[in-house]
Amino acid sequence: xxxxxxxxxxxxxxxxxxxxxxxxxxxxxxxxxxxxxxxxxxxxxxxxxxxxxxxxxxxxxxxxxxxxxxxxxxxxxxxxxxxxxxxxxxxxxxxxxxxxxxxxxxxxxxxxxxxxxxxxxxxxxxxxxxxxxxxxxxxxxxxxxxxxxxxxxxxxxxxxxxxxxxxxxxxxxxxxxxxxxxxxxxxxxxxxxxxxxxxxxxxxxxxxxxxxxxxxxxxxxxxxxxxxxxxxxxxxxxxxxxxxxxxxxxxxxxxxxxxxxxxxxxxxxxxxxxxxxxxxxxxxxxxxxxxxxxxxxxxxxxxxxxxxxxxxxxxxxxxxxxxxxxxxxxxxxxxxxxxxxxxxxxxxxxxxxxxxxxxxxxxxxxxxxxxxxxxxxxxxxxx
Length: 383
Ligand SMILES: *Cc1c(COP(=O)(O)O)cnc(C)c1O
Description:
CATH superfamily of the largest domain: Type I PLP-dependent aspartate aminotransferase-like (Major domain)
Radius of gyration: 21 Å
Bound molecules: pyridoxal-5'-phosphate
Oligomer: single chain
Structural class: alpha/beta
Order of helices and strands: HHEHEHEEHEEEEEHHHHEEHHHEH
Number of strands: 12
Distance between the termini: 27 Å
Strand order of the largest sheet: 1-9-8-5-4-2-3
Number of domains: 2
């Protein structure tokens, strides 16, 4: 029986070639030729005002926290149903994290519950485009204007996905907030093993972003010949990746359309293959709001209860198919509870207990997984 893993990084075949080219160029530290090519490609394809590759999405989020000057006592609103880095980046600067519940129809944060969480200390809202499906950004940007708050999109999963606002304009995710963070971790659609990018849409941050990313120096300006020497001008760290990473990433980006098409085929095959089984009421299929597109980052099912989920995971495993759940929601994490009291987040808990992610990668043949699931659902329905 063939093993079907949960994720398998896809290689386009050009990665090694570009890495070799980067090595031959003689400059493999940050901001070499491939880093520039990646920046240009993103800025051209998606119209982002300024892109800077980072070593991870975690790093991009940490840069964002530095850029908006998060300090002790500031409050940052975000979903609890997310990866730890969304919160950690701000906790590192001394922020208090205020968790917002998920939506009833989607694991993303419930935009209608944000306003009641805003206080005088609130500094930013961090929407996470879960599964690459947009949060309702009109609502979030309206709150940002009304209360003068920064919006940082955690777009880790959201490459090549869009939001259509009430004005009818379709905007790429990552282009709407003041700042946005993407991930190229090997579990994402486009990857370089580890890797990330910060997108800067608010021009006030252009210069300082370059400085913070280059250890607090104005080295980027120096390389452009804008200053005759460089030095320490601000706080910062080393957030820029080697050009070897960028060379790998560039090979993936050249194949973005092909990768996305294949993932979309897998997603649609799952959806259509499981549609009638969902009528039994055992589980729900993912819902995509009208204003959002689906970049096929993830295919998940939401079961009625955690016992059913557990049973499906183990029955799939018997058939050598590996499905995974997540997240252990942050508001219930040991670390957060060590210095905060517990809050009640109904839908976050529901997704935490009942959501199951199915295998999703370029080379996957989804039919095997669908057939296995249909057999399992039949058994469960007879019980
Ligand atoms: C993957 C992910 C991250 C972290 O990305 P890294 O590149 O591994 O640092 C952050 N937030 C979300 C929502 C993610 O899915």
